[in-house]
């Protein structure tokens, strides 16, 4: 089945329609939203203006993902390494979830979107965590697209914690080392019951994972673009999905 998708965002009518196979839409798409600072710098503006505009791209990406029938959209919003940035920038970034949700939460509820958070809650300021908790609680019964924010997320910390917890369970006698399976490890990670991403997108031309979902991305398809995150539109997501549909996923086997 072919899904005709109109390029509806920020692209002229001259752009040809992309034809996407409706039966091969990636179920879980993860995005490393990068390039906000460079976007602002190019315009002679402070970095935070880049983050502000990045928030608009979050909305565009979420709408486009939902329209395409993507079931889970994971967005890398703040890494465990991003605390190294200047205090003012970190403080600004920590205000964005509140700001985004104050504007968008009602619409997310209307659109049946379920908001989730993947990250280490303990270091987040309480105003950030409370805003996220409210969004998670108020959308908990929705069964539409999952919008999963990776906030204070770091894969090595996630794996370290998981190993520590399993060690404690072994020490207590509730887990035997030989009973540890790949599925068990996966389910004990912050992504919990979410399936692994089928497609990873990174914007801004950087070709690295920056400590993002190292376990979960083992067999994901990777798509990199030079587009800076605040310029990202639904048309770019379509482009990524179109390329995904040309990939052959072999998982080490033969086709
Ligand atoms: C991504 O944009 C947003 C976060 C990492 C929070 P950057 O802020 O990393 O932008 P660049 O990479 O400096 O351009
Ligand atoms: C990765 O981007 C983190 C997020 C997008 C939240 P960074 O800008 O922090 O990554 P590096 O430092 O270039 O690897
Ligand atoms: Mg960056």
Automatic annotation (TrEMBL):
GO terms for biological process: polyprenol biosynthetic process. InterPro entries: UPP_synth-like, UPP_synth-like_CS, UPP_synth-like_sf. Mg(2+) binds at residues 34, 221. CDD domains: Cis_IPPS. Keywords: Magnesium, Metal-binding, Transferase. The active site is at 34, 82 (proton acceptor). One of its GO terms (cellular component) is cytosol. Pfam families: Prenyltransf (PF01255). Its EC number is 2.5.1.-. Binds 2 magnesium ions per subunit. One of its GO terms (molecular function) is ditrans,polycis-undecaprenyl-diphosphate synthase [(2E,6E)-farnesyl-diphosphate specific] activity. Its cofactor is Mg(2+). Substrate binds at residues 35-39, 47, 51, 79-81, 83, 85, 202, 208-210. Catalyzes the condensation of isopentenyl diphosphate (IPP) with allylic pyrophosphates generating different type of terpenoids. Homodimer. Belongs to the UPP synthase family. This is Isoprenyl transferase.
């Amino acid at each position: 089945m072919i899904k005709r998708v109109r390029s509806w965002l920020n692209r002229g009518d001259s752009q040809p329609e992309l034809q996407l196979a409706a039966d091969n839409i990636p179920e879980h798409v993860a995005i490393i939203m990068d390039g906000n600072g460079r976007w602002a710098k190019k315009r002679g503006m402070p970095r935070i203006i880049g983050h502000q505009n990045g928030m608009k791209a979050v909305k565009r990406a979420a709408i486009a993902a939902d329209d395409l029938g993507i079931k889970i959209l994971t967005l890398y919003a703040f890494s465990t390494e991003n605390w190294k940035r200047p205090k003012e920038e970190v403080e600004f970034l920590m205000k964005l979830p509140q700001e985004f949700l104050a504007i968008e939460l009602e619409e997310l509820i209307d659109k049946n979107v379920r908001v989730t958070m993947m990250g280490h809650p303990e270091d987040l300021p309480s105003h950030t965590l409370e805003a996220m908790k409210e969004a998670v609680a108020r959308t908990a019964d929705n069964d539409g697209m999952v919008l999963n924010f990776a906030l204070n997320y770091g894969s090595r910390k996630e794996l370290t914690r998981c190993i520590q917890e399993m060690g404690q369970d072994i020490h207590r006698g509730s887990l035997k080392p030989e009973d540890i399976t790949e599925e068990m490890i996966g389910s004990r990670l912050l992504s919990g019951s979410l399936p692994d991403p089928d497609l990873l997108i990174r914007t801004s031309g950087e070709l690295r994972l920056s400590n993002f979902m190292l376990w979960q991305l083992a067999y994901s398809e990777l798509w990199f673009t030079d587009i800076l995150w605040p310029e990202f539109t639904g048309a770019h997501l379509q482009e990524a999905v179109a390329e995904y549909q040309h990939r052959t996923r072999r998982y080490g086997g033969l086709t």
